[in-house]
Write a structure and sequence with these properties.
alpha+beta; two-stranded parallel ribbon; about 270 residues; six-stranded antiparallel beta sheet
Amino acid sequence: PEQLGLHAAELRRRGLYSSAVGIGDHYSPTQLQAIAEQGGGRLHDAPLGEDIVAVVLGELNEILDTAADAVTLTATHPRRLPVSVLGPYPRSVADERLEVSAGTLVSGASRQIVLQVTVPPGAAGERFDLAIAPTWRTPEGEPDAADPLAVTVTLAPAVEVAAELPDRATCLDVARLWHRHILLESTLRNSEGRYGEARDFVREAFPAFRDYCRGLPGTERLVQDLEGHGEMVQHRMAESVVRGICMDATFELKAERDHRINRRGRNS
């Protein structure tokens, strides 16, 4: 998968995007995920012949309806405040810079990209400034950009943080996408037979996820589901289950359309 991802990433840098279609029941989700993720394209599962046709036609129609190409989100941050991205996006990391490639956007589409910030210990009132800047190319190939978004992280005692009234709708979106990210990453490890790594990935991510969801209505099921998933990934999972989790999580994390006629794999 790593070698396939490197080749797909190099093609993406040259302006050639790679999507992948898994056909039948016995393909490697890990290898296809590497091609689609690093290639800036999409991952599809096509259990039936008519699904292959629907997926290819759907991709071609989206190319014709492209509103923005080479969409990139760049986060500039202090070294003490590392930033990562949730979801199957190609990314490059430097000392104080994270660059996330979001691929193409079709007309009328939207995409939520969740950035995860690791906050260091420090004194109350200490501030960290970040800048998040989106850039893209127009359908005519012209570069374009939006004004950078300035974000300030201020350290505060836990009691003050708990008293804040967050935007619940945004918090629910973050919890949902974070949940899908943990499912996807641990399931991909399981599909490679790395059962201990899959279990540890869930165990390491779970405490922070649980704390984030505490007191947030509508997240109880997500927490319970992740607890059960942590037990499940310790053992070999059925190929159909792996495919279903990978497809569902990828489509939801990237807010992409499922072009298949037959969606049995996602609904089982």
